[in-house]
Design a protein that fits this description.
Residues 1-13 have a biased composition (Basic and acidic residues). The protein is an alpha+beta fold. The protein has 29 helices and 33 strands. The chain has a 4-stranded antiparallel sheet. A 4-stranded antiparallel sheet has the order 2-3-4-5, covered by helices on one side. A 4-stranded antiparallel sheet has the order 6-7-8-9, with no helix packed on it.
Length: 854
């Protein structure tokens, strides 16, 4: 198909125009092929004069008066000897069972292809056209029309005889007829008419525009798009006519239908044929061009254009010049365009050639993309339409794309496409790898090799690793990290790396890679040695991941030297695997590291390393004095005498003061603060913490001859010691800094205390009064007494059964009730009684509140 199409569209004789078409980036809409087989034999000895297309077959008329029926591929199925002169027109009904034929010698035949019964007539003038009713086979009237000097309608009457009616005459030769449903359109020398067979009315007359053109040389082209839309092409003018129903109120004596021209425009060339394509038009043009040598016009290749009609113009969608045989000798009347409505097939008929045009399918689209080297788009189109393509294979297109990329030296893109194109085909993968090796581009394909479910032979991966090892250590290391260790023979690669390290033993990249290879091979101790030697950050991850704690018991110092924080955290998190005692033993010769470990251990748990607390005192004193005092405060296992000895040796005053106070020697501690630190504020703070009157007295005694200390005491002891005790002991005449301010502060503090006491008193009185009032309201409430209540003494019902009798009841605030006679005597205070049950409370809620008498 592609070869035929090239021959049809691009002849060898053309140069400039042809190259422009070949270089065009716009994809053609149609593809072309010559109708061959039996058609070739017919046209060698005869010439085509007309052809009619049915969905199932073709009917060809020749200049020698023969009619051939052919299949869609051009093979002859039947042959009819109709006349000795040119066949002018062949007409088929929709079923394809009846055919109408007319010839230049006036013969008209209408017959069934399977019965041969029908109409046979000879006229005394040439009959140019014949048209069967679309439903000729099914119709009882068997209607058809012929066109010569007159337009004649033939139909069978009820006696099975043919009846003839003249539909039109007097305007020259009828050159074209198209029958659709109930509408017959025909063209003569004046214009185009439409006749409604159902109403027997002519409904329009569309005049031709260019009357200077000879109708016989530039015949009218007619085509029904649907049952109401007629397309008229004449000369270089195209009109689209729509048959519409007339409003009944406007009819009067007018036909029930009328025609509206919805589009009319001029074209560049002369029209030979028309066919609809969706909402577009396929147009066959006859082209003339000026000769360079002579002043006359020559016949050029005909053009098949797809145009989009607009109301007053058209838009060209595509245009193809067709190289039909003997196009130089053909005139406009020699070309015809027929189409098959069932399929989008368009037949270009010329005397010595018939070309079939059809819409391009997805295979053709891919062909064009590949031809234009648009492989990416071709591959995408094939993937999207892989169920519909017939001539292409997605993988083959992909391979062509890869070959193209390799040829253009875009090796990285070619390698990237291998992933998508080669898929799981191991043979193709290995072929591509060897091809990349041949062109020296193994590195390009390395990162795209399969490493999942599909895997190539280990030798392939080893070949690439050896290539990287020769030229690119970093790339080699990257592949080792990215590739699973079971893709290749690990031992072979380890040996290769070892050989390279002999030449460059300090290369950190190779050493790191060798450690990773040892890890893949589960030789973790060898990997650990290299990581520690390189001080590599992954050493801790390796230990955790593969549980190598037994291997690092003798390497704790190395780990600590590398990163103290990470090492200590790891050791403390895995005490069950490396004991505290083992770590302390290993770090015994490195006290600064031992201190870091024990300090973090103490922070986590004050009791776990208690047996090392005595040792920690010296470590804190030597390496971390700021944390010594917090340690002494928090530790309950630290020997105080040993700590005091170390602190006194190193003259650590604050720590010594804390230890003396911890051991109960507060006076000595206070003395050190005053003598060694000379810090009255710290001394006052110390005295406040101890809250000992004797300690305050010692502090005053020590400070009495030191005016700055007296000032500090006056400012701070007001809330702990009576300031009068200090003021009375100050010697007369002693000059004390800021004495006035200190005394004012003391008075201010005293006033503040008085105000606080008064405020508290007022609050207390207000609360007491509120509670008293609440109690009074509560006690003033009545108490319900009914038959269910009993005497708490005799346990009889509190109310007598005979309420008419006199009775006395006493009810207490505690809600206990008694008969009066059941209560003991009132005692020493007349009229005052107490609840026997609540008598434990003196004057409590059991005092009498109510006496009932009756």
């Amino acid at each position: 198909m592609a070869e035929v199409e090239e021959q049809v569209r691009h002849p060898s004789e053309e140069t400039t125009d042809e190259s422009e078409e070949e270089d065009s980036e716009e994809e053609p809409k149609l593809k072309y092929e010559r109708l061959s087989n039996g058609m070739t034999e017919i046209l060698q000895n005869d010439a085509a004069s007309c052809m009619t297309v049915h969905d199932k077959f073709l009917a060809l008329g020749t200049h020698f008066g023969k009619v051939f029926l052919l299949d869609i591929q051009g093979n002859i199925t039947q042959k009819f000897e109709i006349s000795s002169v040119k066949i002018n027109q062949i007409s088929l009904d929709e079923s394809g069972e009846h055919v109408g034929i007319c010839s230049e010698d006036g013969k008209v035949q209408v017959f069934g292809l399977y019965t041969r019964e029908g109409f046979h007539e000879n006229f005394d003038c040439p009959i140019k056209v014949v048209a069967l009713h679309p439903q000729f086979t099914r119709s009882n009237y068997k209607q058809f029309v012929t066109g010569g000097n007159k337009l004649l309608l033939y139909e069978r009457n009820w006696l099975n005889r043919w009846k003839t009616s003249v539909l039109h005459e007097g305007e020259g030769t009828i050159t074209n007829i198209k029958w659709r449903a109930n509408l017959i359109a025909w063209a003569n020398n004046v214009g185009v008419k439409i006749y409604d067979i159902s109403t027997k009315q002519r409904i329009t007359n569309v005049l031709r525009d260019n009357v200077s053109l000879r109708p016989d040389m530039y015949p009218c082209s007619l085509c029904w798009k649907d049952n109401t839309t007629l397309i008229v092409g004449w000369g270089s003018s195209i009109k689209i006519c729509v048959v519409k129903e007339r409003n009944p109120t406007e009819m009067r004596d007018l036909p029930s239908r009328y025609v509206e021209i919805v589009s009319a425009f001029e074209t560049e060339f002369f029209i030979c044929g028309l066919a609809p394509l969706a909402d577009q038009l396929v147009t066959l043009f006859f082209v003339k061009e000026n000769s360079d040598q002579m002043d006359e016009e020559l016949c050029a290749r005909p053009r098949l254009d797809i145009i989009q009609p607009l109301p007053e113009s058209c838009e060209e969608i595509s245009s193809d010049a067709l190289t039909v045989r003997n196009f130089q000798d053909n005139e406009c009347r020699d070309y015809r365009l027929e189409h098959s409505e069932g399929e989008s097939l368009f037949y270009i008929i010329s005397p010595k050639d018939i070309v079939v045009a059809k819409e391009r399918d997805q295979d053709d689209h891919i062909d064009w993309l590949v031809q234009k080297k648009k492989y990416e788009e071709a591959l995408m189109a094939a993937e999207i339409s892989f169920k519909n393509i017939k001539r292409h294979d997605v993988q083959k297109i992909g391979m062509e794309y890869i070959n193209h990329l390799v040829n253009t030296r875009d090796y990285d893109s070619a390698a990237r496409k291998c992933q998508k194109v080669l898929g799981k085909n191991m043979e193709l993968w290995e072929n591509e790898v060897y091809r990349f090796k041949t062109i020296g581009q193994l590195k390009a394909i390395s990162q795209y090799l399969p490493r999942g479910d599909l895997r190539l032979r280990p030798a392939i991966y080893e070949m690439i690793l050896h290539e990287f090892l020769k030229t690119d250590y970093e790339g080699f290391a990257t592949l080792i990290r990215e590739w699973p260790g079971d893709l290749y023979n690990n031992m072979a690669i380890v040996q290769a790396v070892t050989d390279h390290l002999k030449r460059d033993p300090t290369n950190s990249t190779l050493l790191t890679t060798l450690a990773e290879l040892y890890t893949y091979d589960q030789r973790y101790d060898r990997a650990l040695e290299i990581y520690l030697r390189l001080r590599h950050k992954d050493v801790y991850q390796l230990i955790h991941k593969h549980n190598l704690f037994s291997s690092i018991e003798d390497k704790i110092v190395l780990l600590m030297d590398f990163d103290k924080e990470k090492a200590v955290d790891m050791l403390l998190d895995n005490e069950d695997k490396i004991s505290i005692d083992k770590v302390v033993e290993e770090l015994a010769d490195r006290p600064e590291l031992l201190h870091v470990y024990l300090h973090k251990l103490f922070k986590r748990d004050h009791h776990k390393g208690q047996k090392y607390h005595e040792r920690q005192i010296g470590l804190y004193a030597e390496y971390d004095r700021p944390n010594l005092l917090p340690f002494l405060r928090d530790s309950t296992h630290c020997p105080l005498e040993k700590a005091l000895e170390i602190c006194q040796q190193r003259n650590f005053v604050e720590e010594t003061v804390f230890l003396l106070s911890r051991m109960g020697n507060c006076r000595r501690a206070l003395q050190m603060i005053m003598e060694e630190l000379a810090d009255v504020d710290k001394a006052i703070e110390f005295a406040k913490d101890q809250d000992d009157a004797e300690l305050w007295d010692d502090l005053i005694s020590y400070s009495i001859d030191k005016p700055p200390f007296i000032t500090g005491l006056l400012n701070n002891i007001g809330t702990h010691v009576d300031p009068i005790l200090l003021i009375r002991r100050i010697k007369e005449g002693m000059e004390i800094p800021n004495l006035r301010d200190s005394l004012v502060k003391i008075l201010h503090d005293y006033n503040l205390q008085i105000l606080l006491r008064e405020g508290c008193k007022k609050i207390l009185v207000a609360d007491s009064l509120s509670l008293l009032q609440k109690m009074h309201r509560t006690q003033m409430r009545g108490v319900r007494v009914d038959e269910e209540n009993i005497c708490e003494s005799c346990h009889a019902t509190i109310l007598p059964s005979d309420m008419a009798k006199t009775f006395n009841v006493v009810v207490f605030h505690c809600r206990h009730m008694f008969h009066k006679e059941c209560l003991p005597s009132s005692g020493t205070i007349p009229g005052l009684q107490f609840c026997n049950i609540c008598s434990a409370k003196r004057r409590g809620p059991g005092s009498g509140i109510l006496e009932m008498k009756k």
